[in-house]
Amino acid sequence: MTMWRTVSAVFRRDLRLAWAGGGAAAPLGFFACATTLVPLAVGPDLKTLALIGPPLLWVTVALAALMILERLFQADLEDGSLDQLHLVDAPLEFIVAAKGAALWTAIGLPLALASLPAALALQTPPHATIPVAIGLLIGLAAFIGFGLFGAALAAGVRRGGVLIAILVLPFFAPPIIFGAAAASKAASEGLGAPGFLLLCGCALAGVALGPIGAAAALRQQTG
Amino acid sequence: MRVDVESLAIERGGLRLFENLSFSAAPGVHVALTGANGTGKTSLLRALAGFLAPSAGLIRFSVEEPAAQTHFLGHRDGLKGALEAREHVAFWRDLLGGIGRPRDVLARVGLSHVADLPARALSAGQSRRLSLARLLMAHRPLWLLDEPAAGLDTAGKALLTDLIAAHRMMGGVVIAAVHEPLGAPDLDVRLGA
């Protein structure tokens, strides 16, 4: 199976690069800062904190995902290694999906883990922290899936971060609406909260459509 | 593999670089693309790799799916600063579905002693040698080389000439954009004449 070998080579390389370059530490640091500083700014009112906790986690994770998307294809385009990814015995869609999967593993998993203590600090009841973290992990799949498309469109643009943010904003809205709603109800309903299945639907759409759109965008930029 | 270029024209940014270009490369043929800066050597190579759509004319390959049969060596080496030389060759082997042995290939291009160094620690010439290693990790009949000798020392150029000669012996096609002659090409395609 040469195709599987090709796709897994890209996955393993990107996984290694995410941590070797130190790039994976930045979104984690951002997440830790934001979830530490907001409670300090809100003050000692625990009720308010419990109310804004889940939305804050979701917004912070969405912004952390945006941070890592900018360089995803741009780095490969600049150093010339993107050319190699076109000349392989596997569809570009699969290659792009492998890059997204590597990003989700390298940065999505640590972010979801980091959300456990953060949720506790934000007054989420202990039994609800794991459903919240699972929701965030699924939400990150949606963010990265749709984000691939924006990142590919903006790959050739210097300082494309702003462009990516504007492009993916409409796609980030549904998962954040359903995800934050499900997280707010996690204490009473766990993973059975009404928004949870809708969030899973968003993630499936992102994972299925993102690589197709991203591959189409990258094919336009090879000239 | 056989490559036929018929009445090809390429435009970049509204400017026509060349038109009515025709040549053929049969198995074992080495084509040198020459011409001043900006005459379209790189664009022609990118069109042959399928990265760039020609504005007129045809490029025909004797195989289906030429992309998976092509090595493209651009003027950028395609290296990741954080990855070791050894990791690069192992990645290329898996990416390109090759069977080359990383240790042997690194020895062939003269990089055994820096196999464990990250690519950012390599000199420009060593980086170029490392990207030449890609050609050896997987056998692909068509080599598209853009200024492959850039940054190479005398021994490096001799190595490159040897690699090209060996590839032609195996029936491979080499199309290389060059400023100074490299080995003994069978065909000199001069652009912008």
Could you explain the architecture of this structure?
The complex is a heterodimer of chains A (223) and B (193). Helix content of chain A is 85%, strand content 0%. Chain A has helices at residues 2-20, 25-42, 46-79, 81-86, 92-121, 126-153, 161-184, 186-189, 194-219. The radius of gyration of chain A is 18 Å and the shape is elongated. In chain A, 50% of the residues are buried. Chain B contains 5 helices and 8 strands. The two termini of chain B are 28 Å apart. By secondary structure, chain B is of the alpha/beta class. In chain B, the strands form 2 sheets. Chain B has a 5-stranded parallel sheet with strand order 5-6-7-3-8, sandwiched between helices. In chain B, helix 2 (85-96) packs across helix 3 (102-108), helix 2 (85-96) packs parallel to helix 4 and helix 3 (102-108) crosses helix 4 (124-137). Chain A binds chain B through residues 2, 5-6, 8-10, 12-13, 16-17, 20-21, 78-81, 83-89, 222-223, and chain B through 12, 46, 49-53, 65, 67-68, 70-72, 74-83, 87, 91-92, 94-97, 134.
Tag the structure with descriptive keywords:
heterodimer, A: 223 residues, mainly alpha, 0% strand, B: 193 residues, alpha/beta, five-stranded parallel sheet, 5 helices, 8 strands, globular
Described by its quaternary structure, the protein is heterodimer
Mean pLDDT of chain A: 91
Integer count of domains of chain A:
1
Which class best fits the helix and strand makeup of chain B? alpha/beta
Helical residues, percent of chain A = over 70%
Largest sheet, strands/sense/barrel of chain B: 5 strands, parallel
Instruction: Tell me the distance between the termini of chain A.
Output: 30 Å
